[in-house]
Amino acid sequence: xxxxxxxxGVPVNSFLPSGTTFFGEPYALNDGTAFDGVERDLNLFSLAxxxxxxSGHVLSLSTSMRDEELRTGxxxxxxxxxxxxxxxxxxxxxxxxxxxxxxxxVEDNSFEVRLESPADAQVxxxxxxxxxxxDKDTLDITFANQAGLVDSQEEVTNKAFFASADFDLNDKMSxxxxxRYQEEEKSYTEWAVDIAGNSTTRQGFDDASxxxxxxxxxxxxxxxxxxxxxxxxxxxxxxxxxFNGDTGAAVGSPGYLQEESSNYExxxxxxxxxxxxxxxxSVFFIDATDIQLTTGVATPTGAVNSxxxxxxxxxxxxxxxxLKARLTDSLTAGFNYALADSxxxxxxxDFEWVLTSGxxxxxxxEAASTNYTGNGTCSIKGNQFPLSSKHQASAFIDFETxxxxxxxxxxxxADVSYESKKYVQVHNRAYSPEATLVGAxxxxxxxxxxxxxxxxxxxxxxxxxxxxxWLQVPYFTFAxxxxxxxxxxxxxxxxxxxxxxxxxERQLGLELTYNF
Length: 516
Prior knowledge:
Blueprint: E1 27-28, E2 37-52, E3 58-75, E4 82-83, E5 99-116, E6 123-140, E7 149-168, E8 173-190, E9 205-223, E10 228-239, E11 242-243, H1 245-249, E12 255-256, E13 259-272, E14 277-289, E15 292-298, E16 304-310, E17 313-326, E18 331-346, H2 350-357, E19 391-402, E20 409-419, E21 422-423, E22 431-432, E23 435-445, E24 449-456, E25 466-469, E26 498-501, E27 507-514
Antiparallel strand pairs: 1-4, 2-3, 3-5, 5-6, 6-7, 7-8, 8-9, 9-10, 10-13, 11-12, 13-14, 14-17, 15-16, 17-18, 18-19, 19-20, 20-23, 21-22, 23-24, 24-27, 25-26
């Protein structure tokens, strides 16, 4: 909208377009984060063992444990200016807006047991069980409390049983049948405390639920020859639901449902010309329900936060091609292409109504919502999934040849990749543009060393790789800005704009590696 978040020289008591001012000092130039950087303490343990019984069956066990303490602090507004929402001085308690200092304490462990049939069995099979548990405490680090105050506690427990069987129907055809049953239980508690650890009017959150699923998978292989195979796959998939905490509860979305999908794939795998050419191709179709997406929402206070929501049902039709060829003993080239044509087949989004109705607020139904244009709709049917490219492609060429004595070789490589535009949200209006990246490497390598000159993004592609719609309020305040507040039925949510992560520009470098 042409209005920056802050303007050099603007007095701190400047009037906003609404005619109101900030309470206290709205921004400062000093450090706005209570902790800067990354501090990580990580302990890992894993163990795997297998034992072959006298009958030829193989019993396998595996277990792992992780204990991690992670402190992170960052300021994500890409500015030296720090905004806050209270008249207290900076460094006295709360961090600046966009400043986020967090302490995560995570413990998880897993255990799996499998029993497999003898390798020479006519029908090969396996059965197994899996257990996983994670406990995660999230603490908010503030200037007033560097040790951190408990913000939330999460626990995830996953229990599963699985089995598979392979059948050779004849010399050319085989079928594999797999199935998995799982229960995933989640609990989430959020604590209502302020920066001093005192009770506040902010609601606490405490909920738990269990999601159940049975996911089969059937694979059919048919060999046309020793070098060419056709296959077909049917599989069902799930993504368990979860909780949004008090942020979601404040806007009527305390949690989200389990996403489910049915997946179909048909393909060909081949090795041609004595293995010098590998060619694979496939087509697939995905039918998904209760699609989970991250959604930015404005809370009753006007703040914008991200929650997970179920955005309806959708389909994806896709094609994948992969080709690799050894042209000579020294020269190899490859190409791959992927099409993912996605669309929502049903779904209702609140802000789609705002955009199409001329600024009316969605009230849960068309009849209850204001429709200034007469064209208002909340439907996102036919829209492409956000943050996903419809087309992706890449190609490479490698050259390597021996030089001199001692096993040295000269190598050179060039590659190019392309992805089409990606819509930022389900509304399919704003998007990250298409991008083409070109890179190259050349150098000399020995048995345990190499010297490489490289170039990345040689064409200096500047299309942003990621864009997010967040917020844009002049000089940052929420309650004082209510666009259209004097118009009955108008949406008065906080104005929101876009920010993008900048792509790294052209890079040229020299790399020396030595393997001990």
